[in-house]
Amino acid sequence: MGKLFFMADEHYGHANIIKFCNRPYETTHEMNKDIIQRHNSVVSSNDTVIHAGDFTLNRNAQKYIDRLNGSHVFLRGSHDYWLPKTHGMIWEGNISNNNFTVICHYCMRTWARSHFNSFHLYGHSHGRLAPIGKSWDIGVDNNNFYPLSVQDVIKIMNDRPDNPNYIRKE
Residue 110 belongs to what domain range? Predict the structure, then answer.
């Protein structure tokens, strides 16, 4: 089994996102090509990527998926019209050695096991919403247009304060 990666808010094919987020691209073609290149530079064919929403507004998402290394888990965001409306919005699980993690397109103030200092990965805010506790915006705008590995997330979380509702064991 390969590595696990996380990302959100790629917005493939979305011209307005370039202006809205002040992305360093002139065209959607240039943006798509660069984000795909960055993705493929760190993700291998054996790896898995959890995409936390807003992958593309385009109903033909497969044309982007086919160009990306790895297998993919998609969570529904606010612009994923290509996914069924009943498609899941939250992923929960251990990412490494009891690092329980909740992933959702939207940022939460509390999340499953947050009182035990679990991690929360989110998107939607495009780097404009400060994280609290052990949470982090995994959107491409907040991470130099790269997916984050489990090791990246653990390193980030090690430098983050405890969750506001963390219950310390005495």
Answer: 4-158
| Residue pLDDT, tens place only, 59-117 | 899 999 999 999 999 999 999 999 999 999 999 999 988 789 999 999 999 999 999 99
**CATH number of the domain within which 95 lies:** 3.60.21.10
Q: Are 54 and 8 in contact (CB under 8 A)?
A: yes
Residue 104: phi and psi, rounded to 5, are -150, 150
Domains held by the chain: number: 1
pLDDT per position as a tens digit, 106-115: 999 999 999 9
**Is 170 a member of any domain?**
no
Residue 128 lies in a domain: yes
The span from the CA of 105 to the CA of 78, in Å, is 8
Distance CA 113, CA 82 (A): 31
For residue 162, which amino acid is it? D
Q: Is residue 164 part of a domain?
A: no
Angle at 136 between CA 134 and CA 141, to 5 degrees: 170
Whether residue 66 contacts residue 40, with contact meaning beta carbons closer than 8 Å, is answered with no
Q: What average pLDDT does range 12-27 have in this prediction?
A: 97
